[in-house]
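Could you join me in thinking about how sequence relates to backbone shape in a protein? Label the sequence line and the structure token line clearly, so we can match residues to local backbone shapes. Once you have written the record down, we can walk along the chain together.
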Amino acid sequence: MMTDLQDRLARIQAKITALKEKDPDLNLFGSESHAYKLNEPLSNQTLTTFENEHQITLPQDYRAFLEQIGNGGMGPYYGLETLTDGLCSSLDYKDKKYGVQTLSEPFPHTDDWIAPGYKEGMSYEDYDAWQEQCFQDKEVFGLLRIANFGCGVSINLVVNGPSYGEIWVDDRTNDNGVYPDFYFGNEERLGFLEWYELWLDKSIEEFEKA
């Protein structure tokens, strides 16, 4: 198992280098934000302290990435968030006054979720009440923000709950609820390294087709 993980990390590292070389002018979407740079990795001690503080165990593949490759930076959309920025409820406003993610409670969903009761043409009052249901904190307990998709949408890693280890989208800002991430055309749900490597593959392919 560890050998497979190390093989995958080595393969990802090689693809990171390959993608950087293919895009010196930063033409890939989001590359101007991260400039293909990764922050310094985190120590095992730092990761363990984070886990203890939030009463979770980080998914093994994500933890290995943080420890061996980098703590945020180069990645899908506008880049990977750092571990601590992943606690921000809003990635557009990284300020604790906008709230902090609760990781110590489980993410409750295993399938697409949106608050019930939405109706086309509903009154402003009913819409506001419906949105209030959507934005209850408990609906996104156990989600660690890992990337900013833009337009108020975040990409998340489930670190607590029955969907543990999966990548999910929080699109409540656009009234679309939360759901597993299939944005890269994947038919199966993805873990962190699968998601990251698929992004690398699709990005490299984009340049090879050009």
